[in-house]
């Protein structure tokens, strides 16, 4: 299941980098072949992406606005993923959670014509796994809604491979496999002291809780703080990649300082370019884990800028960066010990320590007291 999800995401990211609808259609025909359900899911992701890009600003999505009609707290985790906290609404709706989920699904479909799937559970982890079970796929009886009832989390988790658990990456899977653990029940047979002896205290405790569906993270709606955005309009159009990257670095430096000042972290980085002919383009990337350091945010933003420039290399009159999918800064300290697909985008303890040290120096001596060397005049 994990490989299928990754394949779908890989096709989506490749397709959205193509400029024209014709190019995307040809590409999807080539890679999806006769797998029409796969193509439909990718096209649905692209439609959501295009809805986001049609906005000149970098604000909340149409999906979030629809979900907020049902839930008091909605957290956008990425362009196509939201978490909702429906706690306390039982007395209002007076219906099973699955029925409420179906009404939400119908509302989104009626408003956008997009098919969506909804998973429900007592934690973010359980809900994230449940939504994969909800997706209608060939050979399944899935209907688009799957709810794990309270008390059923253990039995539900027992049906998964460890590879299906978010953040259990390939190298960690190999390490567990050498210990004879490939499925969730393989881990459940061991107590915490035994796992600690094999894996170390931090990893053992994380895995022990994960395979039991335990996840204390809350849905963070953050009120009006949907994103932190900074942009710059140039006095003269810029066509040099190095100069554009330098301007982007200055914006990232400001945005990440504000991010940390609000005790927040980010998962989604968006770069905006406005070309000399006023055509505005955007590219986004959602990271596996929340981050807050200049290095990782700029590495992500620089890659997005390069993608936009490859698609259309003309003079630019504005560049902007937006940080969204915001969370509390404490989330940025979670589990750097698990590997990512892009190791240079994995934030380390050193990155965070350096970022906070720089913040303290700037607070004491001024914003320009310590800056990236390329920004010094």
Written description of the protein model:
The structure is a single chain. By secondary structure, the protein is of the alpha+beta class. It has three domains: 2-120 and 133-140, no CATH class; 153-210, 5' to 3' exonuclease, C-terminal subdomain (DNA polymerase, domain 1); 227-375, DNA polymerase, Y-family, little finger domain (Dna Ligase, domain 1, 2-Layer Sandwich). The protein is 46% helix and 17% strand. The strands form three sheets. Strands 5, 6, 7, 8 and 9 form a five-stranded antiparallel sheet that branches. The protein has a two-stranded antiparallel sheet with strand order 1-2. Strands 3-4 form a two-stranded parallel ribbon. The longest helix has 21 residues, at 241-261.
Provide a concise account of the structure shown.
This protein is of the alpha+beta class.
Radius of gyration: 22 Å
Which class of secondary structure composition applies to the elements?
alpha+beta
Strand-residue proportion: 15-25%
How far apart are the termini?
A: 52 Å
Per CATH, the class of the largest domain reads Alpha Beta
Give the low-pLDDT segments. Answer: 1-6, 53-60, 330-341
